[in-house]
Amino acid sequence: MIRLLPSLVALTALALSPILQVAAHGYVQEVTVGSTKYTGYLPDDAYECPQPKRIMRKIPVNWLVEDLASIDIQCHGRSGGGSAPASLVGTIASGDTVSFNWTQWPNGHTGPVLTYMARVPDEEDVRDWAPEKEKVWFKIDHAGKYEDGTWASESLGLPKLKPWTVRIPPNLKAGQYLIRHEILALHVATKYPGVQAYPSCIQVKVTGNGTALPEDKDLVSFPGAYTAETPGIVYNLYIIGELPPYPIPGPEVWTGGN
Ligand SMILES: *[C@@H]1O[C@H](CO)[C@@H](O)[C@H](O)[C@H]1NC(C)=O
Ligand SMILES: *[C@@H]1O[C@H](CO)[C@@H](O)[C@H](O)[C@H]1NC(C)=O
């Protein structure tokens, strides 16, 4: 019974394959938190019973978020569904690294790679916390267009196929956090709507003796951080000659004083 659904989906996919090929993008298939590997949220997960245990919140795999004002921009819900908490929490020491292993990213889906964190209030549990539209997110990493003209997203595609690695700010105060990792694909971003966001969130507990927390001025909301007017949301990759510098959307990277 449970297995019937994926095969139906596969049949439909076959029937629609020219459309789906256009819509096939990518997702994080594995996350390494410190030295522990976790499976990402996979295409079949939605059909499994019981639900597989993940640190990654549910996403509609191979889909994108176009409406930057929708709650879906937060952790990649769908159709206004927002983010559904996952059942596991990874543990990571401050200063240690998390790496996001994407499925082979299409090289034509060029753009920046950005990572944010949000601190879970002390009285809450990350396994049932969703920050709605509160300003809770601070940026810990971003990269856009490099000086040699290549883009951050390109290391996730062929031939490199490198996982994206970010460091938890070394002085970050211990506690539970969401980590929101995203690619913004600019191949149709010459106007808004157009840019395609591919966010996903993992649940972690940060350990260590850090004392730093971001201030209010470092925090943004999702939705809220990006609008049609935010620099880098509308951008033309197809200008003949040298592209103008690319302004990476969102706030500065917060380093916690390091
Ligand atoms: C990324 O995940 C895939 C699928 O599990 C795996 O085959 C591949 O080796 C991983 N890449 C790295 C660098 O760990
Ligand atoms: C945190 O502080 C305690 C007490 O000073 C020390 O034993 C421990 O090694 C420290 N932990 C880290 C990760 O630095």
From TrEMBL:
Q: Which GO terms describe its molecular function?
A: metal ion binding; monooxygenase activity
Q: Which UniProt keywords apply?
A: Carbohydrate metabolism, Cellulose degradation, Copper, Disulfide bond, Metal-binding, Monooxygenase, Oxidoreductase, Polysaccharide degradation, Signal
Where does the record place the Auxiliary Activity family 9 catalytic domain? 25-238
> Known EC number(s)?
1.14.99.56
- Report the superkingdom from the record: Eukaryota
- Please give the InterPro entries that the UniProt record associates with this protein: AA9, AA9_LPMO
Q: Does the keyword Metal-binding apply?
A: yes
Where does the record locate the signal sequence feature? 1-24
| Gene3D superfamilies assigned | 2.70.50.70
For this entry, the protein name equals: lytic cellulose monooxygenase (C4-dehydrogenating)
Organism of provenance? Candolleomyces aberdarensis
Which lineage do the record's taxonomy fields give for this organism? Eukaryota, Fungi, Dikarya, Basidiomycota, Agaricomycotina
